[in-house]
Amino acid sequence: MKFSADDFKQLYAEMPDEELRSLVREELTEVARQCYDDELKRRGVQAAPVRRSMPPVVAAQEPEEIAPEPEEPLEEVEVEREEEEDLAPAAIFSSREKARAAKGLLQSAAIPAFLEDDTVASGGFRLLVAASYVEQAREVLGETG
Fold first, then answer.
1. How many angstroms separate the CA atoms of 99 and 85, rounded?
2. Are 98 and 145 spatial neighbours (Cβ–Cβ below 8 Å)?
3. Residue 72 in domain
4. What's the CA gap between 44 and 33, in Å, rounded?
5. CB under 8 Å, gap of 24 or more: what pairs does 95-98 form?
6. Is residue 51 part of a domain?
7. CB distance 97 to 106 below 8 Å
8. Which of 124, 138, 140, 107 is nearest to 32 (CA)?
9. Is position 63 within any domain?
10. How far apart are CA 107 and CA 132, in angstroms?
């Protein structure tokens, strides 16, 4: 299963203005960032100012002098942009209510999430996120559980 631009568009369209503005643009994937920008433009709202999660680190003492490494020519590598990203389960719930609450929690932490009803196969309700967000999603869910 892929996490497409249409999925991000739907997710952002469902968010209230303040929730959308609370997302940290720099933490979004490239596809999500474009959809985010489009949704803000469509609504005529501006993104919230970038917030720092940690204060800057200040060196306690003078750094040692380090000899510069010899410069080597950089090889040009063409990076292929992916329009979609695989989805992976962040958690599985036995009740729809718990799954919806967890989905809301992830979305408030700026992690796009989708529910998949797998009760037919006795799998419960799977909370899916983009593969690059799985670890972060599990941390968020673990903090509350």
1. 22
2. no
3. no
4. 16
5. 95/125, 96/125, 98/125
6. no
7. no
8. 107
9. no
10. 15
What domain range is 14 assigned to? 2-43
Counted domains in the chain: 2
Containing 106, the helix (H) or strand (E) segment is helix 96-108
**And the tokens for 98?**
């718990």
Q: Quickly tell me which residue has 């709202």 as its tokens.
A: 45
Q: What letters, b where the CB count within 10 A reaches 16 and e where it falls short, cover 56-65?
A: eeeeeeeeee
For 68-94, how does the pLDDT look when each residue is reduced to its tens digit (9 = 90+)? 666 655 555 444 434 567 888 888 888
Q: What is the pLDDT of residue 39?
A: 93
Ranges of beta strands (E only) in the chain are 2-3, 85-93, 113-117, 125-130
In a domain, 109, yes or no: yes
Cα 116 from Cα 89, distance rounded (Å): 9
pLDDT tens digit string along 91-129? 888 888 888 888 888 888 888 888 887 766 666 888 888
44: number of Cβ within 10 Å: 7
